[in-house]
């Protein structure tokens, strides 16, 4: 039986629960996993905290890190995904969140995170809070209502830094609620990233052509609506004394109210703001703008259609999955030329549009805005960098899928965003650059764009996945790599992206991370060798997002010369791309990976045994100084300088096996990087092989992780 080793203890506070000096779980012999009942969310959270305490390396945790619960999801088979937010010396860490993925029996399988190394920095600011607030306030445009500042660690920066996160609340010049976040370097006082957590349909100033307290509603009723954008529809309403109200008790008491052409005087619409829509006969609107209830029909139907899509397709019970419906305000402001979602008040606002434009109560706009709430409750994607584009793209994707799911005759589904508001759509999914500002292909500059424009990369990926490349009745979609993509349809594409969002993406995820997350999602849903997974890869390549270490059954082509030629080099995709003895590639908590949560564990049984690990690779003839590198840890019960148990690093070419180096029980150590010369194999396709051999007594374990073959 393999022993526990190389694991330190760590005190972690998770969701208020302190796990002090948590010990390493007992290791288990290799064999079939037992099936356990589906756990509760509380049990999943408890087990995840224990796993983090036992294997801090899997989440890049240091002695000063604590974690609090962000979200917990459990698959039908009991597989757990526990999303945790990181604190460093008590400070929130932007980009430090992690998802712990565990088997139904609680065994740690893998982790999802963007933090590369454990944090180590001072949390003593050199710039005062007052100075930081002054910097942020000077940049604020609009009517300011208040501000606050808190110290955070910005782990989204190339080097994690201490910063003041200043939030200035108020009203933007166009009347929108405004919650502008600015990071001010706590050492230099320089303003950095800035973003607004009020999410609008278009960039404020861009014209259309370029937690809620829920009141108890009355009995559920079924009303008839004559909308401006959605046409004639059936509405969920509630009966009240003397009539009916636009409040739907069957969908979490989601309600629609009249803003009476006012804008917020606070920074968010407060509970009870606006006026309720009531009616005596439960017939709403007349299909024209002469009746104020007409656009209320649009908005209320938007709540209904969005709820039904998430509930019926993904099993999600409301935006936060807590059974609570959203609130919508129509007739917001005067000639307000936008719509938006305010997560702080859990509400939507809709403008009537500028002079000559139409109300923003289009169905895909409703689905788009409320999907920002879904993103906030799940991945929590930042609203800057690549993550900002993914945030906006997610709303465009699900707004489109809400529209297709509703299949309204008055608003026929398509892959355009906001096409009914004005003469030209707000965004095109088949080729986003057609709007003149969005990107169709990922570049290193994507992260620097406004999220409404960097979202084009994700939108283009979705279109290729759902429809495919080339010309169709929906549009004409080129690929950035010249390849051809055959679409899968909306159902599979939506399910893959929803699982990627809710299961694998974290706050600072990049487009490369999105490729990895959606490959994992497709593998979970359809299998690694499935057409669906292969299409995910083709579609990401089709928008310029290059292959990552995570692939579908090893179908990704060899990386270019100069990068790591080994696939899945850190074993985070399990045994993918490797040939290994049964159970050798593992995330067993009896030992610790050098990085991530998976590693290769050869031998360690204390009996006559041989384990092997191998992968084929072509060493380019043009390589200047090809090398094999890997991190190796050796733990043994043997004593003395005699080599009883050995690990050989080998290269197999044809029928010839060359041993590059031999390691043994005589030199036990923690992880040490080993580098070996491959110059003799330039221009050859060879097999990199590790062979661990153990004698009949006293166990020796050889742990291998973070391998690479480089060209010089």
UniProtKB/TrEMBL annotation:
A Pfam short name: FTP
InterPro entries: ConA-like_dom_sf, FTP_domain, Peptidase_M4, Peptidase_M4/M1_CTD_sf, Peptidase_M4_C_domain, Peptidase_M4_domain, Zinc_Metalloprotease_M4
Superkingdom of source: Bacteria
Record's signal peptide: 1-20
Region Disordered, residue ranges: 239-273
Keywords, alphabetical: Hydrolase, Metal-binding, Metalloprotease, Protease, Signal, Zinc
Domain Peptidase M4 C-terminal per the UniProt entry, residue ranges: 379-545
Biased composition annotated in UniProt, kind: Basic and acidic residues: 245-260
Residue span(s) of domain FTP: 65-110
Peptidase M4 domain ranges (all copies): 223-375
Entry similarity comment: Belongs to the peptidase M4 family.
Protein name as it appears in the record: Neutral metalloproteinase
Organism: Streptomyces crystallinus
